Amino acid sequence: MKHWKFFSTLLVVNLLLIAAVFFVGFFVTLGKVKQRTDRLTGQFQSQFLTVVRHDLEESWPSVESRIHLYCHSDLHPLGFRLTIIDLQGRVLGDSEYPEEKTEPHNTGDRPEVVEALTGRQGQAIRTSQTNRVDYRYFAEPILHEGEVVAVVRVAVPVASLVESHRHIVSGVLTGFALMLFVAVVLSVLFSWIWHRPLRQINRMVRNISRGNLGDIALVSGPHEITELAKNIDRMRRTVASQLATITRQQEQFRVILHYLPDAVFAINSEDDVLYCNESAKKLFGIESPERPQHIQRLIRHAGILDFYFRESKRLRTTAADTTLERLELELQGQRRVLDLELLEVPDGSDTDKITILLVISDVTALFRIGQMKVDFVANASHELRNPLATIRAALDNINDGVYDNSESLQTVFQVLNRHVARLETLIEDLLSLQSVEDKFTQLQLEQTSSEEQRFWLDELFRKKADERDVSLTFDLEENMPPFVTDNKRLGLILQNLVDNAIKFTPGGGKVIVRFARAGDSQLVITCNDTGCGIAPHEQDRVFERFYQSNASRTGDSRIRGTGLGLAIVKHAVERMNGTITLTSRLRFGTTMTVRVPVEFV
Length: 601
What we know:
Distance between the termini: 79 Å
Number of strands: 19
């Protein structure tokens, strides 16, 4: 049933095409024939007029016999009406109407005659004033010795032209009807001849569309059909080959890119990037190319390109091992440290195959961690060496008997006590930093309150604030309920914030600690001081380990901490899934705002 549906569809389409062609051809042909008939009729009318005019000009003024001959005989063809008019408009002769019964013809309702009397050819299509019949008029002047002496006019009835058109339409319509009938018969015949091979081709294409790319049976039929079938079979083989290539490349990509965090660019022998993985797109802020693109269009960093072209040339010309190079550059507004490596892929000489893999590893985080470790060891060693050197010197002097009285020894003991206290503080801060940095230590939740936190802070720092003449006040939100949090980490945060604030606030200044709620599950702690403030270029660094602001800003070079306080605060806040922000102006003070999630009771 489907086969007959296909045949009927093919036949209907052919018939519609034939009908459309014949319809257009009929009207175009009819128009051309009518146009040519009108032109030939006009030419014949004009030629007949010219012949009569020349004959009368040669016989003038003895033209009576010639006029009688033309007007009262059967010499004028196709029902032409011939009229000869003198300068006064009097009709000298008319082939269809008696001259004595005609009225003057030089009036305005006969424009063709008026035009000819001026020496030019006149034309008009109008109704005859004499016998009330529509004519097409041609009129020309008769010249004698260079002067217009009369007018000769030839008229053709419009009805004759219409009848001629009717015969033309009938003839053309009959011819096209016969041709249409023949075309329909031939269309049915050829549709039947083409039906079977086209059905086979249709089955072939349907199998290909379903992914069946196996061998197909040969198709017999007209030459064009068999050629079409052969081309489809070539397309099938090409598609199968391309699918095999794609499958092979996918396997390669699967091995290379599986769980790979590094940026990978797969490149062919023409230095075109065939593919780049997600890590590459994120690192360089690019999209995966829909078609091969030259590496310089995707990577625009001179250092990376220099490495690629230098090492790729070496790989392609010599049996060299892969090389690794570290590069530091600006990438998407950030300073990055990258490890670059090239890998050669064997059997990839074609432009659609991978020949080289460019692997780029972002080791910025590892580099920074390593640098931080180096800085940490250097800073910790420096912080430990100074008090130890002082203690060692004092002990050596005591051992050598330099101090010979109790007053000197008391001074030395005070120095030793101060430096031992500094070592104790440094060790305590290092241990606190280690505890808040440990990602595997779980939060130790317990219930506390803002009033409890105020009490122990006031007890801890009241004496120090009074000694420095700093006003330490607490602002607690009314009716704030108790809350559950990691009290140890919260204590480290508050202790270091308040200690820093008092330390860098000069006498007469203020330190205000505020406790407030934000929503139903967030505690907001604000520590505001009127101290020396922090310069803008230092604000991003104050949370680094051992970083200390310039002591000269405080006006007191004795103010010196371990440089670990704000680092402890930062890591403690992060372990509690909170945030810390800093706002500061030089000579106007600093505000630290900590937000940590808690569970209000």
